[in-house]
Every structure is written in C-alpha cells, then in structure tokens.
Design a protein that fits this description.
One of its GO terms (cellular component) is protein-DNA complex. It holds the Pfam family Trans_reg_C. This is Response regulator MprA. The protein folds into two domains: 2-121, Rossmann fold, CATH 3.40.50.2300; 151-224, Winged helix-like DNA-binding domain superfamily/Winged helix DNA-binding domain (Arc Repressor Mutant, subunit A, Orthogonal Bundle), CATH 1.10.10. Helices cover 41% and strands 22% of the residues. The chain is built from eight helices and twelve strands. The protein has helices at residues 11-23, 34-43, 60-70, 85-94, 106-121, 152-164, 171-179, 188-200; strands at residues 2-7, 26-31, 48-52, 76-80, 98-101, 126-129, 132-135, 140-143, 146-147, 169-170, 209-212, 216-219. The strands form three sheets. It has a five-stranded parallel sheet, sandwiched between helices. A hairpin with a 3-residue loop joins strand 11 and strand 12 (216-219). Helix 2 runs parallel beside helix 3 (60-70) and helix 6 (152-164) packs across helix 8. The protein is elongated.
C-alpha cells in the first residue's frame, strides 16, 4: 500500500481526499499546517507528499525548501489554485516534483500519486557532483571510485551540500539539516566540517568543500570557485 501525507488547511477538501485515497488503497495522513506536516515527515516515511501551497504558519514553498534542505527527497505534488508559469517555476526551484491545479479530479490525483511513486522507485538514488557520488540506497560515498568513511553527522552535512551543489548552503541551514530545531554550540559545525574536509578533500588533489565567507559552505570545483570562498 502506498503511503502519502496531505498538508492542507481546507478541512473539507482534506477529508474528501483522505476518504477517496482510502478507497483506492492509498494510506493518507493529514496535517493542517506547515509545521505540523514537517513533524509528521520527520516521524514517518511517505511515498508521496501532497502539499497545499497556501498554508498557515508556513506556506508550501517553505515546507518544500525545508524538506530539501534536510535532505528529504520524498516526491512532492503541489496542490494550488495558482497556475501561471512563474508560480510553477518558483515551485520547481523550491524542489516540487509536480503540480496539480485546484479544483482537480480525484482520479487525476490518484494517477499523479502513482506516477510519482513509480518514478521514485525506478530511480537510482544517487547524488553526484564532480567525482563525488553518494548512493542513498546503499548508504555509501565514493570519490574517484574510492570509498569514503563518514560519521552520521558527516553524511547529513555532505548530503545537504550535494543537493545544493554548486550553490552555497548557509550555516543556519546546515545546522537545521543536522540538528533540527536544537542548534548545537557554536563550535560543533566547525568541527564536523573540518572532519568532512579531511574525508572528502585531504586524500585528493582538488578540494571540493569550500567556505563561503560570511555565509556558509559549498561544494565547488575550480571552475565554480568565486573570490569569496576558501
């Protein structure tokens, strides 16, 4: 049975969707706002996230961005009344996988859910940048074919950087990806980034992990480097 989470503040619509998906043998949990939905995403595992754009407390784009920053690659189907190209492009930049414009037919919703779940199951779940490869299914990391040994914290940091590469990730976003809403002491991130650099860069001629002055960190090759990083 497929498992989905619906984050939707329209309770009538949410009730209709949950009941229909149950008939279609698709489990559907429900949250009525962004923070509550993020809590359920942390606690469970879902095949597809059904995400309303206009949510109270944190909108759908914010929820999607927070999930991608955490390294969560659950397929996201955005439900919205906005159907302009700019709206869709903004959603795709935030990490949305597909759009369904309200009002929609429930049969089409089911078809989109199955398509997203099938697409995910058929993917080789890998993140790549330069000669660095993270296999999410096998939980391995290699660089130039050489296996790297990472701590659990190092893994989460590298996954977050890989998903953004070559763009920079802020210090705050990295801390949230690893420690959630309980930030560590000011020295913890520095220590873990030092250890990550030793694993990813020290054995190789070209460094990939760079500090972006006044902002955060990034994975970049020499071709991507800018003067504000080291």
């Amino acid at each position: 049975m497929l498992s989905t989470l619906l984050i939707e503040d329209d309770l009538d619509l949410a009730g209709t969707v949950v009941q229909y998906l149950d008939i279609e043998d698709i489990r559907c949990d429900h949250a009525s706002n962004g923070p509550a939905g993020l809590t359920l995403m942390e606690a469970g595992s879902y095949d597809v996230l059904l995400l309303d754009l206009n949510l109270p407390r944190m909108d759908g784009l914010g929820v999607c961005q927070r999930l991608r920053t955490r390294g969560d690659d659950t397929p996201v189907l955005m439900l919205t009344a906005r159907d302009t190209l700019d709206d869709k492009l903004e959603g795709f930049r935030a990490g949305t996988d597909d759009y369904l414009v309200k009002p929609f037919e429930l049969q089409e919703l089911v078809a989109r859910i199955h398509a997203l779940a099938h697409r995910r199951s058929g993917q080789a779940r890998q993140l790549r940048y330069a000669d660095l490869v993270m296999n999410l299914s096998e939980h391995t990391v290699t660089r130039a074919g050489r296996t790297l040994r990472l701590s659990p914290t190092g893994w989460r940091l590298l996954e977050t950087l890989l998903r953004a590469a070559p763009a920079a990730v802020s210090r705050r976003a990295l801390e949230e990806a690893v420690w959630g809403d309980e930030p560590p002491d000011s020295n913890s991130l520095k220590v873990h980034l030092h250890n990550l650099r030793r694993a990813v860069d020290v054995p190789f001629a070209t460094a990939l992990v760079h500090t972006v002055s006044g902002y955060g960190f990034a994975l970049r090759t020499p071709a991507d480097e800018t003067p504000d990083q080291s």
